[in-house]
């Protein structure tokens, strides 16, 4: 059983691994309607909603799977990164289940789980690989020699790509989250009308930056007095999304050339974007590097990817003292959090 509660989705999934490898059932409760009027996630509302629905979702996923809690062989949960209050709801709930029913528990990293999401439907992906993780909280490229040997190659210095999409949609009062809206309106605009330059790091590093995109959109918006839902608005949004996806592709391609890899993985909420998927597929179609994208339902936050990675981790490190591990990782998270609010 996988349990995910790091941000604004509460999710519980039951998978079967071994001879059969499949997701038996997953229940996801998205909090988008609760946060949309604020144009972003309100952490207090998020934690309270996780608390309200997590037990109900667990009962529902068991019922839909025709299983009882004692049939569960392993509990896997998101250890972080995420909103601390939201993570704690998942942790306390999972620990309670684990203690009371004596089910082993394993914590997993949310970002690594996004990478793992592509393995749910592609079980023969070859290492080494590079993974571009594009979500509301992260934009990074990782190099993986194997599943548990990961190195960060690039990360964003400011906003994550999904965050920029969401902020621009918020600026225009155009709904939340911005990403799916951009996906819907992209084809209505002229992608060549506005130009954007790819951000470059002055220190020559390989990192990403997206704040310049935000500034450029606002500049064009003022200069041309752009109002929402006009043709020029659609042109600006298409030009912006086109440039952002080209930028992500260019950085990924350069990294792929620099490392001797067999596969490229693109994962996270923004990997659901149609334009991004199209561009990446086109680029890698005649390449000897294989490209893997998650199925649409596993792009955004879900508990199947948590369960999938939890199983792999437990098989690789069966003697992991998971409670100790959990306790330590959470005290570290708290310590960092306390330092931040001081
Ligand atoms: O992975 P995710 O569910 O949560 C985090 O771990 O952050 O990603 C959420 C992000 C949001 O910023 C949302 O706008 C973006 O994914 N997103 C999309 C699409 N669907 C979700 N961005 C572009 N196109 C989409 N179709
Ligand atoms: Zn995520």
Describe the structure in your own words.
- It is built from eleven helices and ten strands.
- The chain is α/β, with parallel strands linked by helices.
- The strands form two sheets. Strands 3-2-1-4-5 form a five-stranded mixed β-sheet, with helices on both faces. Strands 8-7-6-9-10 form a five-stranded mixed β-sheet.
- Helix 3 (84-101) links the parallel strand 4 (75-80) and strand 5.
- The longest helix has 28 residues, at 231-258.
- The structure holds 5'-O-[(R)-(carboxyoxy)(hydroxy)phosphoryl]adenosine (KG4) and zinc ion (ZN).
In CATH, the architecture of the largest domain is: 2-Layer Sandwich
Q: Describe the oligomeric state of these chains in a short phrase.
A: single chain
Q: How many helix segments?
A: 11
Number of strands: 10
Give the topology string: H per helix, E per strand. EEEHHEHEHEEEHHHHEHEHH
The CATH first-level class of the largest domain comes to Alpha Beta
Whole-number radius of gyration?
A: 20 Å
Estimate the global geometry from the Cα principal axes.
globular
Distance between the termini: 37 Å
* Major beta-sheet overview: 5 strands, mixed
> What order do the strands of the largest sheet run in, or round the barrel if closed?
3-2-1-4-5
Q: In total, how many domains does the architecture comprise?
A: 2
Ligand list: 5'-O-[(R)-(carboxyoxy)(hydroxy)phosphoryl]adenosine, zinc ion
By secondary-structure content and strand pairing, the structural class works out as alpha/beta
The portion of residues forming beta strands comes to 15-25%
CATH T-level fold name of the largest domain: Nucleotidyltransferase, domain 5
Low-confidence stretches: none
What's the overall average pLDDT, rounded?
A: 92
Query: So, the CATH homologous superfamily of the largest domain?
Result: ATPase, nucleotide binding domain
């Amino acid at each position: 059983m996988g349990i995910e509660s790091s941000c604004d989705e509460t999710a519980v999934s039951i998978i079967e691994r071994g001879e059969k490898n499949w997701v038996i059932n997953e229940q996801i409760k998205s909090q988008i309607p609760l946060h949309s009027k604020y144009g972003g996630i309100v952490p207090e509302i998020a934690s309270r909603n996780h608390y309200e629905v997590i037990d109900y979702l667990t009962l529902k996923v068991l019922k839909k799977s025709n299983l009882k809690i004692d049939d569960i062989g392993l509990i896997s949960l998101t250890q972080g990164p995420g909103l601390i209050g939201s993570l704690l709801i998942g942790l306390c709930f999972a620990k309670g289940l684990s203690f009371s029913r004596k089910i082993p528990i394993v914590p997993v990293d949310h970002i690594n789980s996004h990478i793992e999401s592509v393995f749910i439907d592609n079980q023969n992906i070859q290492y080494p690989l590079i993974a571009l993780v594009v979500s509301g909280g992260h934009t990074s490229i990782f190099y993986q020699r194997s599943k548990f040997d990961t190195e960060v190659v690039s990360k964003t210095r400011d906003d994550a790509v999904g965050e920029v999409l969401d902020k621009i949609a918020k600026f225009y009062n155009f709904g939340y989250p911005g990403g799916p809206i951009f996906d819907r309106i992209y084809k209505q605009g002229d992608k060549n009308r506005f130009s954007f330059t790819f951000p470059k790091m002055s220190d020559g590093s390989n990192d990403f930056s997206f704040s310049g995109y935000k500034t450029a959109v606002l500049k064009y918006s003022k200069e041309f007095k752009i109002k929402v839902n006009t043709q020029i608005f659609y042109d600006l949004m298409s030009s912006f999304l086109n440039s952002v996806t080209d930028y992500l592709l260019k950085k990924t391609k350069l990294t792929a050339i620099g490392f001797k890899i067999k596969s490229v993985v693109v994962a996270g909420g923004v990997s659901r974007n149609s334009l991004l998927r199209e561009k990446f597929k086109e680029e890698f179609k005649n390449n000897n590097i294989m490209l893997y994208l998650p199925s649409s339902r596993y792009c955004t936050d879900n508990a199947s990817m948590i369960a999938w990675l939890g199983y792999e981790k437990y098989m690789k490190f069966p003697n992991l003292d998971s409670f100790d591990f959990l306790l330590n990782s959470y005290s570290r998270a708290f310590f960092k959090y306390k330092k931040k609010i001081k």
